[in-house]
Amino acid sequence: MKEIISNNLSRLGLHDSSVEKIIYVGSDLVIMFDWCKLNDYEEKGFNDVIIVGRSSLLVENYRSDILKLDFGGTPGHNDRLPEFIAFDKFRNVPDFLISRNMVDDNLKVAKIEGLWKLDDIYCWLEWSFDYNYLTLEWDDFITREEWKQGKIL
Fold first, then answer.
1. Cα–Cα distance measured from residue 116 to residue 93, given in angstroms and rounded to the nearest whole number
2. Once rounded to an integer, what is the mean pLDDT over residues 124-146?
3. Average pLDDT of span 76-94
4. Does residue 72 lie in a domain region?
5. Domains: count for the chain
6. Which of 2, 12, 128, 137 has the most CB atoms around it within 10 Å of its CB?
7. Distances from the Cα of 103 to the Cαs of 1, 14, 77, 79, 89, in angstroms?
8. How many percent of the chain have pLDDT more than 90?
């Protein structure tokens, strides 16, 4: 059964997740992750962290995106200045390892940061955007206790 939440997405944690695919649908985006965590799933009575399997984040009215690349710490590129890239350049090669994310439910702003590879050079990607509405969907999840005991999705 498909699980869906569309409020309080600030509880979404993407550390060590990867973006697998991005689909543009009109002015909306669907971002597919290999996994994520939620600090709670109170809608179903879980007040502690749950680990979610493959998931999709629907971003309604995606806009005002900024994609900044930082090469500091990249061998041979430490002196390279940060660059800003167009979303289309990123969209076609979305696979990157996420380190941190932030969702501000009130300001309707999201930010996803992590390692990305541009032309065979690893860099730090900061991706921020505005939206009207976010919806997270997934099929399977386990509790933090199940995860600690070695259960996987």
1. 9
2. 96
3. 87
4. yes
5. 1
6. 12
7. 26, 11, 31, 31, 23
8. 81
What is the arrangement of strands in the sheet containing 12-13, beginning at the earlier edge strand? 12-13, 36-38, 50-52, 141-143
With respect to residue 153, please indicate whether it lies within any of the assigned structural domains: no
Phi, psi of 61, rounded to the nearest 5 degrees = 60, 55
Position 91 confidence tier, pLDDT thresholds 50, 70, 90: confident
Domain that holds residue 101: 3-145
Q: 14 with 36: CB under 8 angstroms? A: yes
CB half-sphere exposure, 138, CA atoms < 13 A: 23
66 within domain boundaries: yes
Q: What is the pTM of this model?
A: 0.92
pLDDT at 95: 73
Between the alpha carbon of residue 64 and those of residues 10, 30, 100, 119, the distances in Å are 19, 16, 20, 25
Cβ-based burial of 8 (10 A; exposed 0-12, middle 13-18, buried ≥19): middle
